[in-house]
Design a protein that fits this description.
The complex is a heterotrimer of chains A (481), B (254) and C (453). Chain A has 481 residues and is α/β, with parallel strands linked by helices. Helices cover 25% and strands 34% of the residues of chain A. Chain A has twelve helices and 23 strands. In chain A, strands 5, 6, 8, 10, 11, 13, 15, 16, 18, 20 and 22 form an eleven-stranded mixed β-sheet that branches. Helices cover 38% and strands 28% of the residues of chain B. Chain B has a six-stranded mixed β-sheet, sandwiched between helices. Chain B has a four-stranded antiparallel β-sheet with strand order 2-1-4-5. Chain B has a two-stranded antiparallel sheet with strand order 7-8. In chain B, helix 5 runs parallel beside helix 6. Chain C is α/β, with parallel strands linked by helices and 453 residues long. Chain C has ten helices and 21 strands. In chain C, strands 1, 4, 5, 7, 8, 10, 12, 14, 16, 18 and 20 form an eleven-stranded mixed β-sheet that branches. Chain C has a ten-stranded mixed β-sheet with strand order 3-2-6-9-11-13-15-17-19-21, with helices on one face. In chain C, helix 2 runs antiparallel to helix 7 and helix 8 packs across helix 9. Classes of the chains: A alpha/beta (481), B alpha/beta (254), C alpha/beta (453). Chains in contact: A-B, A-C, B-C. At the A-C interface, strand 23 of A face strand 21 of C.
């Protein structure tokens, strides 16, 4: 192997920088899952009877379902009775300011590089931080409240806005949608809730940082975002998890609803623990994310930068029911070492004149496997539907794999469906070329990778785009020279 | 300027260059010709510092420095420019961004100040015009979707911008039509100066009608087996390489 | 079913047999003339082959039955008026012209005195008297040829009345394009013709060839079975245009087989406007490294027209680049087919292969079948393909109308722009303008029939 290839390998062998575990007292239920556990979770959260019933219904259906194995991922069987389904910080915090937060928690965020104070001041971002399962801190709530915007933890929403929750919960992802969504419906502990009233343009990016913390705690968040007629919201989700030896299951559900002329932009930077270089440990990230463009001219846009998790199984989707509605999916998925990702999207065209765009950029390094799996479905009545898909794969080294599985189901012949796919390899050629023109090796690699991901980074809000580039650098480059 | 002494090079344990000796003085143009697989491109790539070629013996001095001891980018900073036989495509990186980065990296390495955006733009405009290229091409991704001719012209643009001390052209004329060939030749001829040298690796004598070399060398089986002036190239065009091969093999047999 | 088919082909073989004897007699070539032997070999090969049926994957969407049931005869020379000839002038472009009528070379109308220096142009039967050339021709016809391998190739070789052999000498850049005009005119019986070109571009040479297929008024049912073999030596550049304006009763099958060696560039530009059934097989073998290949195709079909483009690019060596862009417009009950195959063999690392096919389908009776196929066995390559089938963008029509442009004109503009994206890649501006003009004329005619019916 030549020197430049070795350097390339070094770049792809950097260590996970967020591997620490903060010591906060937690109150946990015993391991295992049965109807009692579901009832206890619901009771601990003081939920209304409709929700308890909804959870139990989901649990009963889940018991009849089997775990899906069609994704191109490979992992040992999960023992669902060996998981703790509820953990909450023992100090029930009711905080007015950051000073009142657990200092350990604040330090955790600081080590993550997201100091709340700084973000509040500099970026004007409202942060709803979830530590394990119960939200402990919400900022900017009052300011948002003036506009009638509700941005709170899911638990609070259940207490304060039960009608909204009842109306929309499960309306996009039913409680029996799939195996992991049903599991989530039965045991979800908390998450975020956003409601944007009619005609309101949310003046700031809403942001939540999730963190999986307690060992062996499956994390089951649930996010519900409702954008009323003519409203707009941009929501940022960032995820980091500390290093653990055992795999941790993460099965979240995100539901988005956009009514007439409403727009939701949902951005994710996912950097959960990917496991070590031998493939040990890491997060199983089995997520159901779906948006419903319910109204005419509504728009839902998913942007994701996925660098973490040992296994990612995730297809943020759009149901384009409203006429002239628009769905978008922009994704960068990076896998290294023994990571596996099977990710993509589903665009379901139901309304007339609907449009969807899919831009997927996969980067595979080490011995990882990276698959794009996407469905474009045009229903019988979806006249003049238009889809554009572009799926690119970049290989670093020759022991990794890139796979593309596009599915096109077109039932209306007025549809215009475009699909492009490329597979290329970053290698000595590109590096040598740039270096021959005088660039250093590190600059050369940065230039190549960022160039490749440019179309997706362009879709991210500014502060997230910077973080995404940093993450990519960490995942692929490490310290040069 | 450049002194190559007994240069021997292997790729994957197979010996390609078997002892090259070549002196290039400032201002000279050397053409290197030879049949397929004779080692022409290997020589060009070794001088630029390509890693997978292993130098097993010999020395290369470039302006009193040991060239073989320098990294690829250090050689570029020292004034070595390689016009690639296969210019590399880099998606998403605009040609403009790339050119700026390269120019400023080299200036910084030489201890000169970086060009400010206005100076940069002026320089880029001037040189693109010189090469008969449309400015819109600066916005396109580096070499991506370029035709063969555009790629080669882009190489010449980079040469004009970076103003190297030694430019090595590796089959820059291959696949070009007459018009593009003239543009490439003009770019070289305009840069010819008493302190700048060229090594031109080519497969086709046609190029040498436009860029008249001081010396023509024939590479065969990893050695320079014959040297002469431009007439040698004409002789090769007429008679092919068989007589050279025969001569070389006869010499070896002795 | 298969019996019926065999019967059909049997009757075809009968009229071919009769014709072949006639062809040999017509050309009065003694049995010892190399071309006669060459014809006989080709005819023997034709007899041993079946004509393609729709059960052959490559002919799935195009049936040649309609062609084969007509007992065609070889055509003969008839006069073409000066006005008709003037009509073929490509505005602003000076060319060296060769004229063929019903498959026969009309030397009196051809620019024989203006054959460019460095170019050898001879009838195939004459060229074959030189053993070296004969060997070269035989090596060309022996190529496997990808999708081009079909019974129509030996048919062309057996029946061609006026095949031409072209050789462009080393380092020669032929600056005036060669313009080959193939007329079909009225004859007593349906006739077939076999335009045939062997083009040998030597090292570092450059040449532009324009094939121009057209029918004069009243030509009736014809079958043009054209074939071209193009061999590019190192560093050669060939621009190959094919403009097709047959009448609506004419069938045309065109096989082009190209072989590229190192550093060569081959560009194909195809404009199909006329014909009842049109089938193009374009096949390129990239035998050495650092080649460049561009295919630009357009098809504009209405009524019952059927236009089928099959392309095949065989990447066998590293560092080659191929690029295909085919676009077409279909209206009424027209049918379009695009089947583009790109094979990237194991040794063909650093290949760049792009392919795009887009069609506008303007009525519910029109059909487009697109089948892009990428077969990749090398791991360090960049390949992409795209296929779109869609309608005219009504938002754009609305936009133009809102600026005062009447709807029919707005639609025309957009259709021209759609095909213009392909046409503007033509390396000769005069050819691009000419093609756009022909397209505009046809689009106008089509829109007139829609308005009046």
């Amino acid at each position: 192997m030549s020197d430049s290839m070795q350097t390339l390998e070094q770049h792809t062998q950097s260590d996970y920088k967020y591997g620490f575990s903060s010591e906060i007292d937690t109150e946990t239920l015993p391991k295992g899952l049965n109807e009692d556990v579901v009832r206890q979770i619901s009771a601990k959260k003081n939920e209304p009877p409709f929700l308890t019933e909804w959870r139990l219904e989901a649990f009963r259906k889940w018991q009849e379902m089997t775990e899906p194995h069609w994704p191109k991922v490979d992992y040992p069987a999960i023992d669902y009775q060996d998981i703790i389904y509820y953990a909450a910080p023992r100090k029930k915090p009711v905080l007015n300011s950051l000073d009142e937060a657990d200092p350990e928690l604040v330090r955790t965020f600081e080590r993550l590089g997201i100091p709340l104070e700084e973000q509040k001041i500099l970026a004007g971002v409202a942060v709803d931080a979830v530590l394990d399962s119960v939200s402990v801190k919400t900022t900017y709530k009052e300011k948002l409240a003036e506009l009638g915007i509700i941005f709170c933890s899911f638990s609070e929403a259940v207490q304060d806005h039960p009608d909204l929750v009842k109306k929309y919960l499960g309306s996009v992802v039913p409680n029996h949608d799939n195996y992991f969504a049903a599991l989530n419906a039965a045991v979800f502990s908390d998450g975020s809730f956003v409601y944007i009233p009619k005609g309101v343009r949310c003046p700031m990016e809403l942001s939540t940082y999730f963190r999986i913390n307690t060992a062996n705690t499956g994390q089951f968040e649930r996010t519900l975002i409702i954008a009323e007629e003519g409203s707009y919201v941009s929501y940022l989700e960032g995820c980091t998890a500390p290093m653990r030896d055992e795999n941790q299951l993460h099965a979240a559900v995100v539901e988005l609803i956009a009514l007439d002329h409403a727009e939701i932009k949902y951005s994710t930077v996912q950097n959960w623990y990917p496991g070590d270089k031998e493939g040990k440990g890491g997060i199983y990230n089995f997520v159901t994310k779906r948006g419903l463009c319910a109204g005419a001219y509504s728009k839902i846009s998913w942007t994701q930068v996925e660098t973490g998790s040992s296994i990612t199984w995730k297809y943020p989707s759009c149901i384009l029911r409203g006429d002239y509605s628009i769905g978008e999916f922009y994704s960068v998925a990076v896998t290294n070492n023994f990571q596996q990702a099977d990710t993509g999207t589903k665009m379901t065209h139901i309304g007339k004149n609907t449009r969807s765009t899919i831009i997927s950029k996969g980067i595979s390094a080490g011995r990882s496997n990276n698959s794009y799996r996407g469905l474009v479905k045009v229903g019988r009545k979806a006249d003049n539907a238009h889809n554009f898909s572009q799926c690119d794969s970049l290989l670093m080294g020759d022991r990794c794999g890139a796979h593309t599985f596009p599915y096109l189901e077109i039932e209306n012949n007025s549809a215009r469906v475009e699909h492009e796919a490329t597979t290329s390899k970053i290698g000595e050629d590109q590096l040598f070329y740039l270096q021959q023109r005088g660039l250093s090796e590190e600059d050369a690699i940065n230039m190549i990778v960022n160039g490749y991901c440019k179309e997706v980074f362009n879709e991210l809000p500014m502060e997230f785009a910077v973080e995404a580039q940093k993450l990519l650098a960490i995942s692929l480059e490490g310290s040069v020279g | 300027m450049l002194h190559i002494k007994d240069l021997q090079v292997s790729v994957e344990d197979q010996q390609i260059l078997r002892g090259i000796n070549l002196d290039v003085k400032p201002g000279e143009v050397h053409a290197i010709m030879g049949p397929n697989g004779s080692g022409k491109s290997t020589l060009a790539n070794v001088l630029a510092g390509r890693e997978e070629y292993e130098v097993t013996s010999g020395t290369v001095q470039f302006n009193q420095q040991d060239l073989l001891d320098m990294d690829v980018d250090e050689r570029a900073h020292a004034g070595i420019f390689l016009a690639f036989q296969y210019p590399v495509e880099i998606p998403g990186v605009s040609t403009m961004n790339f050119l700026k980065s390269a120019i400023n990296a080299q200036r910084t390495a030489r201890g000169e100040a970086e060009l400010n955006p206005m100076e940069m733009l002026k320089l880029l405009r001037e040189k693109t015009k010189l090469l008969g290229m449309d400015e819109s091409f600066l916005k396109r991704s580096l070499n991506e979707g370029f035709s063969g001719g555009e790629k080669k012209r882009n190489e010449m643009l980079q040469m004009a911008l970076l103003e190297p001390k030694l430019a090595i052209l590796d089959e820059t004329d291959s696949g070009l039509d007459i018009d593009a060939l003239k543009i490439v030749s003009d770019a070289v001829n305009q840069l010819r100066s008493p302190d700048r040298s060229f090594i031109i690796v080519t497969h086709y004598q046609r190029l040498l009608n436009y860029i008249v070399p001081d010396y023509v060398h024939v590479l065969y089986q990893g050695r320079i087996v014959k040297s002469g002036n431009k007439d040698l190239a004409l002789q090769l065009e007429d008679q092919g390489y068989d007589w050279i091969k025969a001569e070389a093999e006869a010499a070896l047999a002795q | 079913m298969s019996i019926v088919l065999q019967d059909k082909q049997a009757s075809t073989r009968e009229w071919l047999e009769e014709n072949f004897q006639q062809t040999l007699t017509d050309h009065q070539q003694g049995t010892d003339h190399p071309h006669a032997g060459f014809r006989r070999n080709a005819f023997a090969r034709l007899q041993s082959m079946d004509f393609p049926t729709r059960r052959d994957e490559d002919w799935k969407y195009t049936s040649v039955n309609r062609i084969l049931i007509t007992p065609f005869r070889n055509g003969s020379l008839s006069s073409v008026s000066a006005a008709e000839l003037a009509n073929c002038q490509i505005p602003g472009l000076e060319t060296t012209r060769m004229v063929f009528v019903n498959g026969v070379w009309d030397q009196s109308l051809s620019d024989l005195d203006r054959v460019p220096e460095g170019l050898i142009l001879q009838p195939v039967h004459q060229a074959m008297e030189d053993p070296a050339v004969r060997k070269w021709i035989e090596s060309q016809t022996a190529r496997p040829g990808g999708t081009g391998q079909n019974a129509f190739l030996p048919m062309n070789l057996a029946f061609a009345q006026s095949g031409l052999y072209l050789r462009v000498g080393r380092n020669i850049a032929v600056d005036k394009p060669l313009h080959f005009i193939y007329f079909n005119t009225s004859e007593d019986q349906p006739h077939f013709s076999h335009p045939q070109i062997f083009l040998h571009a030597e090292r570092s040479s450059t040449v532009t060839l324009i094939e121009d297929h057209r029918a004069l008024a009243g030509a009736g049912t014809c079958f043009t079975n054209a074939a071209a073999w193009v061999d590019l030596e190192a560093n050669a550049q060939v621009h190959h245009y094919r403009m097709q304006q047959q009448n609506l009763e004419t069938y045309q099958i065109h096989n082009t087989l190209v072989n590229q060696t190192r550093d060569s560039v081959y560009n194909s530009y195809v404009v199909d406007l006329g014909g009842r059934i049109i089938r193009n097989n374009l096949s390129v073998e990239l035998a050495e490294s650092n080649t460049e290949t561009h295919f630009y195709g357009t098809y504009l079909a209405n009524g019952e027209q059927h236009m089928d483009n099959q392309t095949f690019i065989d990447h066998a060596m590293p560092h080659c680049q191929s690029n295909e862009l085919y676009k077409g417009i279909l209206s009424d009950r027209a049918r379009g087919v695009f089947n583009g195959k790109v094979l990237v063999r194991q040794d063909a690392q650093k290949t760049n292969a792009f392919q795009q096919n887009s069609s506008l389908v303007l009525s519910s009776g029109a059909v487009m079948d697109a089948k892009p196929q990428l077969e990749i066995y090398a791991d360090d390559v960049k390949c992409s393909h795209g296929a779109t089938i869609g309608h005219l963008d009504e938002t754009s029509v609305f936009y133009l109308m809102s600026r005062g442009i009447p709807a029919p004109q707005a639609r025309l503009l957009l259709q021209q722009a759609f095909l213009g994206e392909v046409i503007r890649n033509m390396h000769l501006e005069e050819m691009a303008n000419y093609a756009l003009e022909l397209i505009a004329i046809k689009l106008n005619a089509v829109s007139q029939t829609i308005i009046t019916s």
